[in-house]
Amino acid sequence: MSLRRSGTADLPLHYGHVPRWLAERMGRLGLAITEAIITEYGKAEVLRRLSDPFWFQSLGCVMGMDWHSSGITTSVMGALKRAINPHAKELGIYICGGKGKTSRETPAELLKVGEYTGLDGDFLARCSKLSAKVDNTAVQDGFQLYLHNFIVSSEGQWAVVQQGMSPMSTTARRYHWHSASLTSFVEEPHASICGENQGNILNMVAREASPTRSSLMEMAHESPERMLKEIRQLIMPSHHEVKAKDVDIKRLGSILWLAHEKQPKDFEELLLLEGLGPRTLQSLTLVSEVIYGTPSRFKDPARFSFAHGGKDGHPFPVPVKVYDETIATLRTAVDKAKLGESDKQQAIKSLSDLSIRAEKDFIPNTNLDAVIEKEREESWKYEGRTVFGKAVPPPPKKNQQLKLF
C-alpha cells in the first residue's frame, strides 16, 4: 500500500449482534465521554480523536465490545449516533450515516444538518461521497465498503469513519478521514487506514499514481500538497483471548495497583471519589485515560478492555454493576461541570495523572492470566454478563491467594 501512513491493522471480521443491555450502556458512556472531551478540549478534539484508529479502538474496548474485532466500528458508531444526535444542537456534533442502507442516506442527512446549522450541506455531502468513492473505488484493496459515518461539528469541521470487508480473507479494514489535515481528495488523503496487509494494490490516490490520474481523470491542473506528517498504525490479532503481548503490563499493572492496593484516602486528589469500590476505580481510571490521555497512551488498546471486559467474555464478562457506577460517576461530574462545579471532573482527570506517575517506577509481575482469572471468578459479584448469559459463582477453592501486582 502506497498511502502515506505508518502501517496497517488487521481487524478480524466478526458477525453477531450487541445485546440491548450493553448497547444502551455503550450509548450512555459514549455520550458522557464525548461531553467530557468537549468540556475539556472542545468539539474539534472529538473529531481528531475519532480520526485516530488507536483511540477509536480504545474507546470501543472501554465500552465493553469485543476488544479486537471489526464489530467495534459498527457498534461504537451506532451507539454514539443514537446517544449524541438527540443532543446535537447542544453539543454541536452531528453524526450521519451508518451501516448498509443507512450509509447511503448520509448525503440527505448532511443536507438536513446544513439546514439546522447554516453550513453548506451540499459541500458536506460532496465530501462524504468523495471519501467513500476514494476508499471504495480509487483504492482497490479488495475491501468493499459497508459502513460509512460522517461526523461534523457546528463549525464545519468533520471526520469520516468507514469500513470495508474482505470475505475472502475474513478481515475488515477501517478508514479514517479528518478535515483538519485534508488538502486534497486525490493525493494521500487519509488520516489513517486500518487493515491487513494485502500486498501491492491498485491505489489511484497514491502520490506515485499522479501521472495516471492526470491522464485518466483529466486532472492535470491539480497540484495536490503533501497530506500528513504522521499516520497512526494499528495491528489487531485474530485470537479472542487477551494475552500479555497485547497490553503494556507496566501501565495496566500500575492501574490495578492503584485501584486495589492503595486507597483513595492516600491521595488528596481522590477525596471526591471516596465511596467508590476498587473495581469501579479501576474502570474509571481507564475511562479517565480515554478522555484525558495523550496519543501515546493508546498504543495498546487491549488494555482498555480491563475497564468493562467484553460481551464475548474476553478478557472477562462485562461487570454491569461496575459499568453503571462508572457511568453514574462520570455523568455526575459532567453535569456538575456544566454548572461551573468542576471539582469532581478534576478528580476523575487526576486518575489518569496518578496512573502515569505510579507507572514511572512500577515493576509489575507478569501474571496477566492470574488477573484475568480473578476477574472471571469475581464477575458474578458485579453482575457480570456476556452474550451467552450471566456469570455464576465459581465452585469453592481451598486456601489459595494470588498476588497480582
From TrEMBL:
Domain of life of the native organism: Bacteria
Organism of provenance: Ohtaekwangia kribbensis
Pfam families named in the record: DUF763 (PF05559)
Organismal lineage: Bacteria, Pseudomonadati, Bacteroidota, Cytophagia, Cytophagales
Name of the featured protein: DUF763 domain-containing protein
